Amino acid sequence: MGQAGCKGLYQSLLDYKTEKYVIAKNKKVGLLYRLLQVSILTYLVVWVFLVKKCYQDTDSSLQSSIVTKVKGVTFTNTSELGERLWDVADYVIPPQSESIPDALCCEDSDCPPGEPVVAGNGVRTGRCLRAGSEQKGTCEIFAWCPVETKSRPAKPLLGEAEDFTVYIKNFIRFPKFNFSKTNVLDTTDRAFLKSCKYGPKDPYCPIFRLGSVVSWTGSNFQEIAVQGGVIGIQIEWDCDLDRAPSECYPRYYFNRLDNRFSENSLSSGYNFRFAKYYRDAAGVEFRTLFKAYGIRFDVMVNGKGSFFCDLVLIYFIKKSHFYRDKKYEEVRDLEVLAQMAESSAERGPDAAGLAEQPEVQDGGGAQKENGCVCRQLLQPASITR
Fold first, then answer.
1. Most buried in the list 81, 186, 211, 311, measured by CB within 10 Å?
2. Which Cys pairs are S-S linked (predicted)?
3. Cα gap 250→108, rounded to integer Å
C-alpha cells in the first residue's frame, strides 16, 4: 500500500497539466465580465495614473535654506524711553533665555560666595541679608541693579509695526532629479521686489505684510503685539517635474503656534530679554535691560518632487531595446575590441562591412560603438591572398 502510494506520487510529478477554456455564450455573463474589466481599467487609468500618478518617481529628500529680512521704521514717545526712532537694528533681536529671581537663606553659610543663583539674577557674595529680627533672609548677590519689573504693557509699543514687511527668501533642491528652484520670481527688473506684495495670485513675491500674516492665522495684530506670539509659516513645494518649471511654485500656510486660548497660561505669548551697554564719564558700566514682547516667525519647509519613471519605457514596450541602448552605455575592454577586429578581418571585408570605411585622420570623425569611439574598427582590414 505504501509502495503504491509513493509510486503514484512519483508519477504525478512527471505529469504535464494544461488549462481548458470554456466559452460561455451568455450575454449577461459576458456583459458583466466586460464591465468588470472596464471598471478595473478605469480604476487604473483614473486613480492610479491620473490622481496618484504612480507612473512617477518621487523625491522627498528636500534640501532647503531660508533668508529673512524685516523692514520698517516707527517713532515712539514714552515716559520711560522718551522720544525714540526704531529701525530694524532696534527691534529685530535674537531670542535669549529667561531668568527667575529669589534665593532664601538663614545664615551666611547658606550663601557660598561665587555660586550662581539658579533661579536668580547674579552670583552670591557670601552674606545673608535679613530684615530686622526675622530669621529668614535673602542671599546678597552681585548683579545688575535694579532688577526688572513684572509689569506688562497696556498697549503695544510698536503698534505701527502692523504695516512692516518681512522678506522670506527660500531655496530648494531635489537632489535625485538635480532640480533647483527659489520662491522669488526670476526677473531682471530690480523694481519688482520694491513694489510687489504677496497674495494668493502672486506666489512669487515673498514680501509679506506683518498685519496680513497675523490676520491669516485668525488673530489680531494689536492683541498679539501686547503679549507676543509665535506664528508658523509653512512653505510647501509639491512639484510635478513632468510639467514646465514655472508650474513648480510654493504654497504658503500660516498658523498660530503658541497657546492663544488661555490668557493666564504660562505658555501663551512670547517674550525675550536683551540689553544695551554703555559707560558714563567716570567709566562706570551701565546697561538698559529690555523685556520685549514680540512676534516670532518659525518658517518650515517641506516638499515632494515627482518625475516620470522610465521603467515602462525601457522594459515593457516594443522598442524598449532602443530606449535602453540610449539610456545605458556599454563600455568594452580594448582587448575585446581588438579580438573583434581580428575576427572581422579574418571573415573578409564583405562580412565585416568595413572595406568602404575611410582611414581615420587626426581630428576627423569616428564610428561609435554604443557611445564609445572604437578606432580599431575603423582601420581597413588587410587581406592576404
1. 211
2. 105-128, 111-139, 196-205, 239-248
3. 63
What is the secondary structure of 308-360 as a DSSP string? E-THHHHHSSTTHHHHHHHHS-----HHHHHHHHHHHHHH-HHHHT-TTPPPP
Q: Looking at residue 369, what is its pLDDT?
A: 39
Out of 22-31, 115-124, 191-200, 356-365, give the one with best mean pLDDT: 191-200
Distance CA 190, CA 43 (A): 50
Phi, psi of 35 (to 5 degrees): -65, -40
CA angle 167, 205, 222 (to 5 degrees): 50
Q: Between these two residues, 131 and 173, which has the higher pLDDT value?
A: 173
The mean pLDDT value for 154-181 works out to: 82
Question: How distant, in Å, are the alpha carbons of 96, 148, 324, 351 from that of 286?
Answer: 19, 14, 75, 98
Contacts of 265 (CB under 8 A, 6+ apart): 259
What whole-number distance in Å separates Cα of residue 209 and Cα of residue 366?
A: 62
Residue whose C-alpha cell is 508519477: 11
One-letter amino acid of 316: F
Three-state DSSP state, 260: coil
DSSP string for 200-227: TTBTT--EEEHHHHHHHTT--HHHHHHH
Q: Residue 70 pLDDT more than 70?
A: no
Annotated binding-site positions for ATP: 69-71, 165, 271-273, 291
pLDDT value of position 175:
82
Annotated binding site: 69-71, 165, 271-273, 291
Determine the 3-state secondary structure of 306 from DSSP.
strand
Least confident of 56-65, 92-101, 128-137, 275-284: 92-101
CATH class of the domain whose range is 63-94+152-308: mainly beta
What's the mean pLDDT when you consider all of the chain?
70
- Centre a 10 Å sphere on the Cβ of residue 210 and count the other Cβ atoms it contains: 20
| CA-based nearest residue to 300, from 172, 199, 181 | 172
Answer whether residue 346 shows pLDDT above 80: no
Domains of the chain, residue spans: 63-94+152-308, 104-142, 329-385
Output the pLDDT for position 336.
Answer: 61
* pTM more than 0.90: no
Mean pLDDT of 255-273: 70
